[in-house]
Amino acid sequence: MSSGSDWPVLFSGGEDEVMAWLRGHGVERIRVEYMDFGGLARGKAVSLAQFEHVLHHGVAFCATIFAFTVTADVVMGTDYAESIGYGDFIVKPDLSTLRLLRHEGGTAQMTGALVWPDGSPVDGCPRNVLARVAGQAAEMGYTAHAAPEFEFYLLDENHELIDEGVQCYSMQKRNQFLAEELALLEAASAHGQLENSHYEYGPGQYEVTLRYQEIRRIADDGQLFRATLKEAAMNIGRRISFMAKPFDGVTGNSCHMHLSLTDAAGNNVFAAPEAPQRISDTCRHFIGGVLAHMPELTAIFFPNSNSYRRLVPGNFAPISLVWGVDNRTSAVRVLNEAPESTRAELRVCGGDINVHLAMAAYLAAGLDGIRKGTDPGAASAGDLDEQDVARLPDDWGEALDAFDASDWVKEALGEEFCRNYSVIKRFEYDAFRRTVPDTERKAYIEFL
């Protein structure tokens, strides 16, 4: 794997320089992509000869993509399918996201802003949702910075485990699959500085952390990282899953999100070295807002039926609605080892989140806490799974009910997004309720 100083290779010039940059790097095609509600990458590969046209006119896609479930069923009742005659929206390229790929030769990749043919923004687009929330932070005088920690399983071609047993942080286990790990990390380095990776608690499970970036940039990088890792695994005869709880009896996949705010001078406003827990009132109120709004945001943080399989005690997945300092069983964990790195880590999410939406929801809730001066309560201590404290909603239907009933969520994330997201997730929830799992059939069919 090349050194961190070599990758990622991002374009940093203007529109008049981009074609020469692409030719100079031997690029023959450019992948223009965006993410749907499920966090899946959708796009087209554009030839170099066509790209100059794309710069000025964008790339058209059938808007019905935003009426898809994770399994690509088209859901009726959204703003994006039958109601507009299955028409188009346009991806307007964002040159700041243009980068070279490592796992697909002669190829660059970029994302952009989704707009309607008349140029108005697609308000339901997850990337646009995050941009609006980041804009609210800017209006308050803050810049949000974030970093995700992704957990995933390395699997065989049939999506089955390739290892057994528990050996968290084991360098011997890491060496067992070293060739695969290095190939995956090489591909993933196209999307940001990879700070570290390690063999995680599950058999064949890994965790990779990306370096802190401005929140919109890291959301783009994080989504592309996840999609690239799955593609790169297929290239070496393996598979990757970020599914929240893919197997019985072993740990699930999380996506911990670290976040802090800086002021106009670049100072970390969460830090207060002389205050209790060495955090500022701004940080406390941010945490208070996150905890207060967690029930109505659970449908974002836990977007699929499988997401809720992680919400059981003793599973290294927080189920509490409290915070703590360096407490891995709390929903929000404060890390305060140095003023410049003081941050709040949201620990509840699984690896199946839409990164843009989860970061938008996390930031929006925290900002509301700052506006209102929300008290998060006392910091927790000990194993919260074993204590009588407030709990996260653990039922998908209840989470969707809370999401739909919240006027604040509609204001914070946008009415168009909330309405359409709910239609899709209600469809998936109803399908989940009508499906009899194989495990349930095997358990009862003989005896009942």
Structure characteristics:
alpha+beta; Ubiquitin-like (UB roll); Creatine Kinase, Chain A, domain 2; nine-stranded mixed sheet; six-stranded mixed sheet; 15 strands; globular
Describe this structure in words.
The chain contains 12 helices and 15 strands. With 448 residues, the chain is of the alpha+beta class. The chain has 2 domains: 18-122, Roll (Ubiquitin-like (UB roll)); 131-415, Glutamine synthetase/guanido kinase, catalytic domain (Creatine Kinase, Chain A, domain 2). Strands 7, 8, 9, 10, 11, 12, 13, 14 and 15 form a 9-stranded mixed beta sheet that branches. Strands 1, 2, 3, 4, 5 and 6 form a 6-stranded mixed beta sheet that branches. It starts with 17 loop residues before the first helix and ends with a helix. The mean pLDDT is 94.
Measured as a percent range, the helix fraction is 25-40%
**Average pLDDT for all residues:** 94
CATH architecture of the largest domain: 2-Layer Sandwich
Number of separate domains: 2
Terminal Cα span: 56 Å
Q: What is the N-to-C order of secondary-structure elements (H for helix, E for strand)?
A: HEEHEEEEHEHHEEEHEEHEEEHHHHH
Q: In the CATH scheme, what's the topology name of the largest domain? A: Creatine Kinase, Chain A, domain 2
Count of extended strands? 15
Task: Write the CATH homologous superfamily of the largest domain.
Answer: Glutamine synthetase/guanido kinase, catalytic domain
Could you list the spans in which at least 5 consecutive residues all have pLDDT below 50? none
Biggest beta sheet attributes: 9 strands, mixed
What's the Cα radius of gyration? Answer: 22 Å
Shape: globular
What is the SS-derived class? alpha+beta
Tell me what portion of residues adopts beta-strand conformation.
15-25%
Figure out the total of helices: 12
What is the CATH level 1 assignment of the largest domain? Alpha Beta
